Amino acid sequence: MVTLTTERLILRPLTLDDTDALLAVWGDAETMRYYPSTLNREQMVARIEAQIERYATGTGQLAVLLRDSGELIGGCGPVWHEVEGVQELEVGYHIRRDHWGRGYAPEAARAVLDHARVTLQKDDCISLIRLENYPSRRAAEKNGAVLEKIVHWRDYDHCVYRYLQAGFSGQR
C-alpha cells in the first residue's frame, strides 16, 4: 500500500504501533455512535491486522496523520464490501472527535478516491453511511458523492453514496 499526501495530511499504512492512537477513535463512544459498538484493544489489534492483510490487494484503511505534527488522528481508505450481492469499493473515514469540523475527512477521502481512480483503475467508489450520520454524509457530499439508494446492510439502514470518476479530483 502506498503513502498519500494532501495539503494537511499524510495517509500511510497502519502498523500495530498505531493501536493506542486508533483506540482514541474506535474506542470513543461518541465517535462510534453510528456503529454497533466501540472496540477494545484486542479488537483494535485484529482490525489493524485485517487492514495490513488487505494491503496486498492495494486496498485497506490507512492511518491519517497531521502533516505538521505527525499526530495520528484517524483512518481512511478503500475497502471492498459486498452490498446487495455486488462487490463495491467503499471509501470509509474515521476522524478523532477533537479534530471534527476541520475538513479532514473529506480531504483524506479525496486522496483515497484519487488513488482508487489512478492506481486501482476504479471508475467509481461508494461510501456506506448510516442515515442519521449527517456529518459523514456531508463529508461525502463535499467530494461530489450522490446519494444513490438506501440499503439494509449489517443490521442497519445505510445510505449508499456514489462517487463517480468526474467527481474525484479537485473537488473542494
Automatic annotation (TrEMBL):
PROSITE patterns, A to Z: GNAT
GO molecular function: acyltransferase activity, transferring groups other than amino-acyl groups
Protein name listed in UniProt: Acetyltransferase, GNAT family
Sequence ranges assigned to domain N-acetyltransferase in this UniProt record: 9-166
Keyword field: Transferase
Regions that span the bilayer: none
Keyword Disulfide bond recorded: no
The organism's place on the tree of life at top rank: Bacteria
